[in-house]
Amino acid sequence: MGSMFRSEEVVLVQLFLPTAAAYTCVSQLGELGLVEFRDLNASVSAFQRRFVVDVRRCEELEKTFMAISWWWPLSDLPLHPAFLQEEVRRAGLALPPPEGVLLAPPPRDLLRIQEETDRLAQELRDVRGNQQALRAQLHQLQLHSAVLGQGHGSQCAWLTLLGRACPGRRRGRLAQPLPSPAWTRSFVAGAVEPHKAAALERLLWRACRGFLIASFRETEQQLEDPVTGEPATWMTFLISYWGEQIGQKIRKITDCFHCYVFPFAEQEEARHGALQQLQQQSHELQEVLGETERFLSQVLGRVQRLLPPWQVQIRKMKAVYLALNQCSVSTTHKCLIAEAWCATQDLPTLQQALQDSSSEAGVSAVVHRIPCRDMPPTLIRTNRFTASFQGIVDAYGVGRYQEVNPGERHRMGVLADRVDPLPTAPYTIITFPFLFAVMFGDVGHGLLMFLFALAMVLAENRPAVKTAQNEIWQTFFGGRYLLLLMGLFSVYTGFIYNECFSRATAIFPSGWSVAAMANQSGWSDAFLAQHPLLALDPNVTGVFLGPYPFGIDPIWSLAVNHLSFLNSFKMKMSVILGVTHMTFGVVLGVFNHLHFGQWHRLLLETLPELVFLLGLFGYLVFLIAYKWLRIMAAGAASAPSILIHFINMFLFSRSPTNQPLFPGQEVVQSTLVVLALAMVPVLLLGTPLFLRWQHRRHSRRRRQPNEDKTGLLDVPDASMASQGSDEEKAESPGDQEEVELVLSEVFMHQAIHTIEFCLGCISNTASYLRLWALSLAHAQLSEVLWAMVMRMGLSMGREMGVVAVVLVPIFAAFAVMTVAILLVMEGLSAFLHALRLHWVEFQNKFYSGTGYKLSPFAFAVEDE
């Protein structure tokens, strides 16, 4: 079981699965999510493995499911890819998640699912084909009816009169005299898409040289497209021509434009009869189409009921076969041998699950631990609360096996829902929201963020909230507990800064008394007229009554030197927090060295690092605290500068105008600098020289003749050699030769670490000043927003009605800009800076992040 600081203990186990029960055992392990299988057939091609045929059958079924779900490519009809989902949506249905826990089906059920799937796919294809054919036929009938009822008959009568009365005149687009009345006049009627009508008319005119009269009209009603189902407007046309050659040209041109051409009778009575017959056929066809669509809805209902569980079962079956492909086969072909990583505390559960799964086969599956020189994967369990914090740490890098974890526990399969682990390392849970709040401190803004996160936490079990597809919402919802603590800590720091939407609040009485200053300083009317700015002297009795009980005194919000006071306060606070945070990171490295048995690093790395860091920047924190505690109001005017003292410390000099804070300060500063500089060669040379000495000592020990011991170490155990033939296939890790020490690489690595740490102490301390900068920027933005929006709105009018009318849009603008600028933009900026402080300034002091997660074989991931 994992300790309070690091990941859990993970061991390599060997599983002996009877061939008859191997599928059931692996399926049960997938339900539990306990182990991560190792591939024992890495050198074997994927097409040569034992269960490749079963995997292919599952993949073919998945393709069939996809074709059913997307209606493509089950048939050669031009169907829309998302037709089924669109049809389900129109019918008010949806593909629901499968009910309950669906186990992986037995292998014999694969054929049954495949047959039912093929039958359902064929039925869908037939019904869909019939529906498409009926829709196309109904569409043609509707177009024919539109052509006959569009009013082209008046043109037909007009052409008859024109041919009899004016055989030699040109009318409309008639370039040549009308032909002789002895010629036969014919008609071509049809429909074309609107965007092709102009081009069709132009081409007909040019190809027929004017020996035609054409009429184009839009349909009065939109017709449903048989393919897309969307309503569309069509253009009907009636063409009158003379001569058979002209008729052939017209038909060829209409065919090229994919026009619908229908018969058109010249007599009005014949057209009227044909129109009535078409309407009757359309009515009958609509009834047939309605029955077809009702039957289609029944088929879709079956899809809705059967498809989700089939998809889950086939995915689980495929996952089981893929896991079985990673196992090796014993020489007797009686069992499969698998190797897997498993947490130590889960071994009893693993053994019990294998026994229950293999009980029907008559032979129990066997599991036992085996030694391994490979670095095990990292297992850190999480719950809903700690998952977002661990994600911050894992984004930097997954910790090495049993390395000190700065975050929380990582989720492992389905057990994370059953186990409610204790916090393993609550550092990031506390420090990340706190550093964010230092930069974002405001009671009002923090309260809004807290309430927003609290609403997500209270609604986290609602299905609509969980299944929301908006990516931004998913990001916020995943970090809801992180936002909750960030808002809560921001409220806390807001009370310290005494800021609520940039306004100070007087929760307690102020520690400054203006009345005492006025009474004892003799402020007259003439003095007040000549001095618009008045100063409160804390040395005057009764003016300063004592510090404010919590946070900054609200009277500072009225002072003109308010910004200067906050600058000094927040800058010193940032340095103290930064040095404390970095020192804590170095101290956490002690636990890594103790756990991995690297005792030499305590003296050769951790101790020099602490001396270097605390001797320089820890002394700076001491100066800040000492000045705060020792310098009183009476001596504030002649107080020495800490910055000048710190600069003189590195220059080994003194400033006559800057008095020391305590006696012997120069000696202390010089000693600390020399001691810090002396730690640099210790950091640089200590570890490489120790490793070189240790390597030589081990080499001398190996050269000593000890053949009996050597034989005992090199030859495999007799008991191991005498085990059954099934275990002969199992890989037994033998002792590997000791890696030769490359001193140049060790020196190079240690030099990089020394330079990075020494220069990082300086740059990282300066980097923590971002706490001061962003806190000041947030406060000033809040002040500007209040002054430019709310204060301007409050000063526009004195009458109650005017104020009420003006404040509505003013407050709306203030609220929108507060959320958009101060909460979203400033919050994101503070979040990124807090992230950088943890990754670069804190975690690099002890956290390598070069491990890899334990990825258990679990069906829960497949279901998600």
UniProtKB/TrEMBL annotation:
InterPro entries: V-ATPase_116kDa_su, V-type_ATPase_116kDa_su_euka
GO CC annotation: plasma membrane; vacuolar proton-transporting V-type ATPase, V0 domain
Nucleotide-binding recorded as keyword: no
Main location group: membrane
Topology in membrane: Multi-pass membrane protein
Residues spanning the signal sequence: 1-22
Alphabetized Pfam families for the sequence: V_ATPase_I
Entry keyword set: Hydrogen ion transport, Ion transport, Membrane, Signal, Transmembrane, Transmembrane helix, Transport
One term of GO molecular function: proton-transporting ATPase activity, rotational mechanism
GO biological process, one term: vacuolar acidification
Region (Disordered): 701-734
Membrane-crossing residue ranges in chain numbering: 434-459, 480-497, 543-563, 575-594, 606-626, 633-652, 672-693, 800-825
Localization terms from the record: Membrane
PANTHER family: V-TYPE PROTON ATPASE 116 KDA SUBUNIT A 3, VACUOLAR PROTON ATPASES
Described function: Essential component of the vacuolar proton pump (V-ATPase), a multimeric enzyme that catalyzes the translocation of protons across the membranes. Required for assembly and activity of the V-ATPase.
Family membership: Belongs to the V-ATPase 116 kDa subunit family.
Protein name: V-type proton ATPase subunit a
Organism for this UniProt entry: Camelus dromedarius
